[in-house]
Amino acid sequence: MKRIFKWNGRLLLRDWKTRLILIGFFLFLGSFSLLYRQQNVVLPEMQLRSEYSDAHNIFRLIPDAHFEGELGEEVERRLGGNSSLIGLNRYILTQREGNTVEGVEDVVSNYLENGKQMALNNLFLLEATEFESHDILTSVYLPTKAEIKQDIAFYDALDENNLAIEWNPYASSEILKEELELFISIVLFIFIALLAGDHFTKDQVNHYSVTQGLPVALKTTWRTRSFILWLMTWVSAFFGFGVSYGLSLFFETTGSLSYPVALYVNQAITYIPLWQYGLLLFGLGMIVSYIFLLIITGLSWMIQNIYLTLFIVAVLVFLPQLWTVINPVTSWQPSFYTEIVSVVTGESAALFNLPGITFWKLPIIAFLIWLILEGVFHLIFKLIPTQRSGLKRRVTQ
Amino acid sequence: MTLEVKNLNVAYGEREILNDISFKLTDGQIIGLVAPNGTGKTTLFNAIMRFIPVKSGQIFVDDKEYTSSDKDILKLHQLITFFPDQSDLHENFSGTEHIEMYAEMWSGDKGNVRSIINQLDMGDYVDRKVSTYSLGMRQRLCFAMIIASDTPIMFMDEVMNSLDPENVSLVSNILIELRTQGKIIIVASHLLDNLDEYANKVFFLKERQVHFIFDHEDEKKDYFKLLCTEQQAKQLQETVSLPNKTIHLGNNILCIPLDKLSEAEQLGIYKQLRHLKNVEITVGPLGTSEYYSHLYGLDIHSYDRGHEDEAAVSK
Predict the structure, then answer these.
(1) pLDDT at position B315, please?
(2) Subunit contact B104:A7, Cβ cutoff 8 A
(3) Does A387 contact B at CB distance below 8 Å?
(4) In chain B, which residue's Cα lies nearest the Cα of A380?
(5) pLDDT (average), residues A172-190
(6) Same-domain pairing of A205 and A347
(7) Is A395 within a domain?
C-alpha cells in the first residue's frame, strides 16, 4: 500500500495542473482576509440605525387613538422603550469598548441587557393581539417569535461566555467564519472538480501503456488517488486558512473564537462557539468532499472528458435547487446535504419546509452513499475503456 | 513456468481480429511475433493481458487458468509485463524514477535499478527528465522498466523501434540473458534478421491465426539465395532445371533448395549464375525475413528499385 501511495502521490504532485490549482487555492484562501477587507459590509451600528428608523416610523403608521387605553399605553411604552434601547446600543457600538461604555454604565446600561429587554418587549408586542394596529406591528416592525427567541439565546450565549458584542465585522474571527462558509459552500466543490476531473483520463490518454498493466487493482488506485487529492485539498486549505487568519490578526481586531454562532439542531436554533462551528463545518466538508472526490475520480476514468465530468459535478452540487420546484419527500434526500452551511444554519430546513434536514444526518447519508459508490464502481471497473471513450465488458460472449 | 493460450478469439464488433489462437510456451524461451502492420500482434498481447474484450478463449499460466475476473487479472498482471509505449512515459519524471516505479510496483525491490541502468548504458542521461530524451533513449528506458519489473513473462511490442544498431545489439544480448534466467519473452518486431539472433521460435500471424511457426531448433535445409532481377530469374529458369521446392520471393530472391541437388547440379547452377551480371548469391538456411517475404508476398529486397534507371542514366 505504501508504494501505491508513494507513486500515485508523486504522479499527482508532479502534474503542473495539480500544482497550479493547489497554489491558486492556497493563495485564494490565504489572501481572503485581505480581499474581504475591501468589501463593503453592513456594520452592526448601521444595522441598528436602520432599526432605529423603523422604530420611529412605526409611531407614524399607527393612529394616535390606538395608543389609548391600558393596552395601547403599554404598547406605546414598549415601542418607545425599544426606540430608546436601540439608541443606547447604537451608542455602545460606536464607542467600541465592549458591552458598555466606561463611566456612563448607569446611563447606557449594557448591550446585552438592552438587547434582551428589546426582545422581551417584542415578545409582549407579538402577543398583544388585542391591540388595534397589531397587524401593522407584525407586518412592518416585529420579527417572528422564533427570531426573537433566537436573539435571546444569542445574548444569553454571549453572557455565559462573558463576551462582548462584536462591533467589527472585519474582526479576525468574523472573517474566519465568512471564509469558512464561502469555502464549504461552493469554492470547495469547484476546486476539487478542477483538481480531480481528469486524473484517470490523463492516464488513459497520455500514459496508457505505462499505467494500464500495473499490478494494482483499479479500485485501489481509485481510492488511493481520491484520498491523496482529498489530503492535498485539505492541507492546502488549512495552510490557506492559517495564513489568512494570521494576516487578519495583524491588520484587524482579533474578535473571539468563542463567539456564538447559530446551529440548527433538534428543530431549533442553538448557539455554539465559533471554534466548534468551524470544526463542524470542516468535518462535514471533509466528508462531503471525499464522497465528491470518489465520484469525480471515478467519472474521470469512465468519461475521459473533463468538461463532461465538471458538468456532472455542477449538476450534483446544484441539485438541491430542484427541490425548490418539486416537493421533496424526505429530509434523508442526499442532495440536500451538499449545501452544508444551509443545513447547519437551518436555512435548508426552512426553505424546503422539512424540519428534519439537520447536520447529524450528513455522516449517515455519506456513509450510505459511500457504500453505493463502492458497489457501482466495483461494477464499472470490471469494464474496459475503449479508445473511443466507451466502456466494454471484458468478455464479449 | 508455462504460458498457454487456448482457442483465443478476438473481434471488434463484426470484425474478427484473431481466430482460434492456441500455443503453449515453456520457460527460457524467446518467441518472435511477426506479421505486417495491423494484423493483430498488439491485439494478441492486449487480449492475453485482458486489456481488451476477448470473445472466447482461455489463458493459462503454469496450468492455472486466469479468467476475466478482477482477481485473476490482477494476478496475471503480477506475472506478465507489457512493454510500454515511449510516448506514454511521464515527461516530468526522470528515467530512474520510471525504472524505480516498475521495480517497486512488481517486485517491491529497487536494489537492481542501478545495475540495470549500467547494463543498458543509460547512466549519462537517466537522471534527467524524460522530456529531454531522444527516441532511442526513451526506448531503452522502456526496456529497462520491463527488466526492472522482473516478471517471469514479458511481452515486448516493437522493442527495437528507434534503436541504433549498437543498441539493437545491446538489447538483443540482454534478451538472451533474460532467456537464460528462465523468462518467457514474446517479442513483436519488424527487425526480422535480428529476431533470428535470439528467438527460439518465430510465430507468423496471417489470416487471424498463427499461420506458421519457424522453429530455430528444427533441422534446417540449405538454399542458394540469389538476389536478382525478375528477368534474370526467368533467364535462369529457362537454362537450368530448378527443383520443385524453389521459392521465388517477391520476384527478387530466388531460393533454391540444395538438399535434393547433387554436387554436380549445384555446380551447374553456379556456372549459369556466372553468366548473369550483378547477381548476389548466398548459401544458407532460410531466415525469418525470407519466410516473411514468402508468406506475405512482399518485395522486401527490392533489387530493381531504381537500379535499372541508374544504369540507364550512367550509360
Answers:
(1) 42
(2) yes
(3) no
(4) B70
(5) 88
(6) yes
(7) no
Q: Are residues B290 and B147 in the same domain?
A: no
Task: Name the residue range of residue A254's domain.
Answer: 2-39+169-389
- Domain boundary (B215, B246, B276) is at B215
Contacts of A207 in chain B (CB under 8 A): 88-90
**A4 vs A14: CA distance, rounded Å:** 15
Does residue A250 sit in the same domain as residue A133? no
ipTM: 0.80
| CA dihedral sign of residues B39, B45, B47, B51 | negative
Across chain B, mean pLDDT equals: 85
Q: What is the number of domains present in chain B?
A: 2
* Helices (runs of H) and strands (runs of E) counted in chain B: 11, 14
Let me know: does A352 contact A336? Beta carbons within 8 Å: yes
Task: Take residue A111 and report the three cell numbers written for it.
Answer: 448591550
Chain B contact present for A208, CB below 8 A: yes
Same domain, B153 and B236: no
Residue B313 has a pLDDT of 43
Measured between alpha carbons, how far is B169 from B235 in angstroms, rounded to an integer? 39
**Do both A237 and A97 map to the same domain?**
no
Give the distance from residue A222's alpha carbon to the nearest chain B alpha carbon, in angstroms: 14
Query: Is A384 touching B (CB cutoff 8 A)?
Result: yes
Identify the closest residue of chain B to A204 by CA–CA distance: B88
DSSP secondary structure code for residue B129 in this structure? B
Q: Indicate whether B148 and B292 sit together in one domain.
A: no
**Chain B residues inside the 8 Å CB shell of A385:** none
- Closest residue in A to B142 (Cα) is A210
- Domain boundary among the residues A137, A160, A183 is at A160
Residues of chain B with pLDDT under 70: 250-251, 298-315
Q: Measure the CA–CA gap between B137 and B171, rounded to whole angstroms.
A: 12
Same domain assignment for residues B300 and B263 = yes
Residue A96 in contact with partner chain B when CB distance is under 8 A: no
**What is the tally of structural domains in chain A?**
2
Per the listing, cell 430546513 goes with: A349
